[in-house]
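Researcher: I'd like a structural prediction for the single chain below. Treat it as a standalone chain; there are no partners to consider.
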Amino acid sequence: AIPAIPLYLLAGLAFGKGGLLPLVTTAEFIEIGAEIGLILLLLSLGLEYSARELVSTLRSQAPAGVVDLVLNFSPGFLAGLLLGWGVLSAAVLGGVTYVSSSGVVAKLLHDLGRVGNRETPVVLSILVIEDLAMAVYLPMLAGLLIGGVTLSGLGTAAGAVAGVVAFLALAQRVDVGVSRLLFSHSDEALLLTILGLAVLFAGIAELVQVSAAVGALLVGIAFSGPAAQGARALLTPLRDFLAAIFFAFFGLSVDPAQIPPALGTALALALITAITKFVTGWWSARRAGIGPRGRARAGATLIPRGEFSIVIAGLAVASGVGTDVGALSIAYVLLLAVAGPVAARVSEPIAERLFPVASGEQLK
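Model: Treating it as a single chain, here is the predicted structure.
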């Protein structure tokens, strides 16, 4: 009853450098598979939303998004500064602690039968805002990691953000037309077309010094309608397989010996950010007029961290900036990827005891 992500990370730690049995001969294959897995992971996430939906959600749920950002980015950023890291490394850790795991949360909502609950749209809206924030944060971070906190690096980051904004503005006008143009009743043609475009734009993004993950995310956002629905069904098995390789590859890139020194900090950070994320969900659900039980479920459901936290740390590790960030992040994600689903499960019985409902009273 826990997500598979921690197990993939542990497998990578076990068979990477410093692990139980280093798999040196498979490194090149795994690295390429991990890159494609990351592209598919972000492409699939982008397929869940259209550009119009993202912009509309940003406008309606902006206050919740601001609260989420302040409460959950700040602990990681401040922790990085207290550890003596530079501003850029601290900003990486802030991103790691900020964003919830869309994949883990979506699975929890389905497994716990909460898809139709009143608090679920609130949870989903926060996830969408975080995903949209990632569409801005990732290219900015990639630009700074490549160019550094210099005038050139800031220019690269600003250019990346401007490109994302321009792409979203364009996608609002042409998403339906693009979907109609590329949709095919042939599964092979649809799969190869969308996969090919994702890899193409991810490569272009890399050439202009923007993360390949962002390029894939934007391609997914540009699709809607039948093309997006067909692509989701076709890409899911391939995405799950290669995404597993991505998480395992991140584990391979971290020496297990680096984790024990970071475990204490990761545990403290996990405890603090679990509380801040719970407060985020509680406040947002209360703002939507939902009762205490629904607020508790919303807060607990948002606790898990996963794919985006690993993506952010992976960018830092790949750039050579975040060796310490990688070890701390993997310990942090392991803790919350396991504790989050447990918290989501126990939140309902605890809320029922703390907030009993009088006989005949309808649940809010």
